[in-house]
Design goal:
- The chain is globular and about 50 Å long.
- It has a 7-stranded antiparallel sheet.
- Strand 3 (85-92) and strand 4 form a beta hairpin.
- By secondary structure, the protein is α+β, with helices and mostly antiparallel strands.
- It has one domain.
- It contains 6 helices and 7 strands.
Length: 212
């Protein structure tokens, strides 16, 4: 079964704010996000620690024409971080549990030394909120994203391939584990703005609608 990536949906649904580069003082403490996305009711997202900590607000909730029988709900960053991040959740209409969660972050937000700590925090926390701490591959990736922000950190020379996508050195990597996957991808297809795309999905997504 071929599943159409949620990235294609976000190319239409996501909004991008072309505000000037952000300047923030120091990085906040890491969010202790709990597992609230894949496998849990989509209605819980609004009250999740991840959404509240990063001040995300719902921007849309509508049927997904690419996967009949599903709904796509998106949340966007607000305040000083408006337009830098979009969270998308796909849920089945016959089951409120989320089957795919995706996060899209502007690459200039990731690459700017002043805002990179915030980008690391939101990506690390998304992986934690989306997948929990069960899979060792994802746990290693999450730990690496957070730990390797400073120079000369032990073990940061031998980083997992997926981390190279986070840094912009690679285009795409996919981690497979029991019941699902995590994919990281760099794309320039959102209004011409480079983006880091992180997706976590289960094996419970209906097949994509065939092209006409």
């Amino acid at each position: 079964m071929v599943i159409k990536p949620v990235l294609a949906l976000l190319l239409v649904a996501a909004f991008v704010d072309r505000a000037e580069a952000l300047e923030q003082p120091a990085a906040p403490p890491p969010a202790s996000a709990v597992r609230t996305f894949v496998g849990h009711p989509v209605g819980d997202a609004a009250q999740s620690e991840f959404v509240r900590f990063f001040h995300l607000e719902q921007t849309r909730s509508a049927p997904d024409p690419s996967h009949p029988g599903t709904t796509l709900t998106t949340y966007g960053s607000t305040g000083p971080f408006k337009g830098v991040a979009t969270l998308a959740l796909v849920s089945r209409d016959d089951d409120p549990a989320v089957v795919v969660a995706a996060l899209m972050v502007r690459r200039d937000f990731v690459d700017n030394p002043r805002t990179q700590p915030f980008a690391r925090d939101i990506v690390k926390s998304f992986l934690e909120a989306s997948t929990g701490a069960d899979d060792p591959q994802v746990k290693t990736l999450r730990t690496t994203v957070w730990r390797c922000q400073a120079a000369n950190v032990p073990d940061c020379e031998a980083t997992p391939p997926a981390y190279r996508v986070f840094t912009g050195a690679s285009e795409k990597e996919k981690l497979l584990f029991a019941g699902g996957y995590v994919m990281l991808q760099n794309t320039n297809k959102v209004l011409g703005v480079p983006m880091l795309f992180v997706e976590n999905g289960s094996d419970n997504l209906p097949a994509a609608k065939a092209a006409d």
